[in-house]
Amino acid sequence: LPSLSLPSSMHLIQVDSVQRWMEDLKLMTDCECMCILQSKPISIEKDEENELALSSQYSTCDNLQLLLKRAWIISTELTRIAQKLEKNRWQRVHSMTVRVNCHVRSMINEYNTFTKNSSEEMHQFEKLLIDKCSEFTAFTERCIQTEDEQILKAMKSCINETLTTVAQYFGQLIELLLTQEAQNLLRQIELSDSVYMTETAISSLFSLTQEGAHLCRIIAKEGGVVALFKICRQDCFRCLYPQTLRTLASVCCVEEGMHQLEKVDGILCLADILTDNTHSEATHAEAAAVIAQITSPHLTFTQHLSSFLENMEEIVTALVKLCQEASSGEVFLLASAALANITFFDTMACEILLQLNAMKILLAACSDKHIVDTPYSRDQVITILANMSVLDQCASEIIQGNGVQLLMEMLFERSSSGNSAEVAACERVQQKSAVTLARLSRDPEVADAAVKLSCIPRLIKLCRSPTERNNSDSVLVACLAALRRLAVMSPDGLEDSDFQQLVKPRLVDSFLLCTNMEESFV
């Protein structure tokens, strides 16, 4: 079955609520009529309460969203049928099969009302799916008319096979529908001279990209990256650049999008946008977001971005300037995220950053709470500092910019909301600040500054107290490494017990000792 994420406007309803039933009556009519015509009672089992239905607000959604919602319902219902079939709940299997049959017919009818150019192949798949759904319903109806266990056992394998075929046909039809819609939107983008029509098409395309990687692959395969970069090369569409670049960033989360970007010299186009001072800050920020996406260290298919190295210096220069002049935390986050990823992408980037006084600019930004205002932004800054800290020249930059104080503050990073993503960001900040401290403490001046700022007691606390590091093993390892480096430079800063347990043993033994402390607290 296609993997379709749950749209925000989808929700569960209680079918015994008359008010909700009335609101959803228009979409539910087909299903209810089918049940009545076949003389099937509506189930009163408890799990009937979880029946999925479309929001009554569907009339305000565009046709694509309606299609995706209907597809999501069908996909979910097919999964639930398989679960009920496993438990031999034949009455439920049949009533749900009837409902799926109705939803499939409604989806096809709805789609055909707003689509005038369906292909012959699509009509064939529609007929195949409708016929197979009817066959499926007939099978399940026979099952509720008999109580013979042998017959039911024999029928079960046939129903399973039919269910698999229905799911297969449904997946293929949805693939065709979405491909056709992507083609229509891209054709509109390519042929329209109207800013309004182009904006509408790009907005719909962006909505599609938010439905998951599968939709992004379809868009990329149909030439989405090419069409969007074409917009970014036309001055008459300058007002649409931010929206277009945001859509590009989404499409380029998949390998197909990256390959297309390389073919159309997308890197060069992004470099031109970033270095053109006549563009708005919003345009620069969205271009930075595309750079952040295509250089993400989590992607495994960046090796073909050879053209990036050719334009890296001017891109890095533009991103540093964007960080320095950012008017909001969001703009700074996008620019610094791109820089952080680039420092992973190629080590030469760190040398360029050093030449551009990026260390000083980033340290200054961290003192402005309106710009570096979240753990996510601090995560990007400390990532850049950690990667730059392998260069010997960074130590003096850190001292001059009061960077050791910042590293100390980051060792205290804690989430204020308890949100899991924010907690994870805080852990990364703690870990990377400890790593940076360990690397820079090769320099006696940095180590001395760290000792004077009481970094050693803080590192010890992080090692010994699991709650201080949110039970993170990666933070523990980084803190042990930093503590050992500082202990070499300032052995008098540790009590004997700390030295014997956290510094003298092998690192793995100290790690096991600290994790055992965690178990004893529990």
Automatic annotation (TrEMBL):
Transmembrane segments: none annotated. GO terms for molecular function: cytoskeletal anchor activity. This is INSC protein. Pfam families: Insc_C (PF19427), INSC_LBD (PF16748). One of its GO terms (biological process) is regulation of asymmetric cell division. GO terms for cellular component: apical cortex. It comes from Pelecanoides urinatrix. Residues 13-57 form the Protein inscuteable homologue LGN-binding domain. Residues 70-522 form the Protein inscuteable homologue C-terminal domain. SUPFAM superfamilies: ARM repeat.
